[in-house]
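2024-03-11 09:14:02 DEBUG pipeline.ingest accepted 1 chain
2024-03-11 09:14:02 DEBUG pipeline.ingest length=209
2024-03-11 09:14:03 DEBUG pipeline.predict start
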Amino acid sequence: MNKLLLLEDDPNLSKTLIKYLTLNGYQVDWAKNGEEAIDLAYDNKYALYLFDINVPLMNGVDVLTALREAEDFTPTIIISALIDIESVTKGFIAGADDYVKKPFDPEELLIRIKAKTATLKEKIKFKAFEIDLQSQQIFYKKEPLHLGNVQKNLLVSLIKNSPNPVTQDELLLLLDKPTDVALRVNIAKLKKLFDIEIQNVRGVGYKVI
């Protein structure tokens, strides 16, 4: 399935993106405001969402939050001119999988879309863990895990990138209140909960092995 939902109120950018993505094998539905996006998401099945933040009626972060609360875990890339850390953090907390800052190269966006849609049906297995990438559900010793969003997102990020490290900046974006202390505390909690080895890679970030 190569059907995408684009939430974007700039008609020129939308038409350019739709043309480019269509040429690359994707079908794109276009929502010009948040309420249209909600209606389309409830009525259709999409491989991926592309959401701007500053759109009429209901902003992109609120739309994504509503969909996640309705247990819609469709991969989502936020595309926005808002580049401050607070806006980026809100996007990830709402459940975004990636964040692309405007202006962007359509080819770069296409690469990110392919990366997200190519793994939709895959499951990642790591030691006693299994992650369903479509539902974002984590299983530990074959039992479903019920973690808070912050620890869940940290764990998924670390496992998906293993054995490579995840940068500290990337991990901080997953926190409600991003500070070095908060990150260390959450990493320590994960290590204690699951008796796993999470290494601090000096000057880079953390990795799980």
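2024-03-11 09:14:41 DEBUG pipeline.report Residues 180-194 form the longest helix (15 residues).
2024-03-11 09:14:41 DEBUG pipeline.predict end
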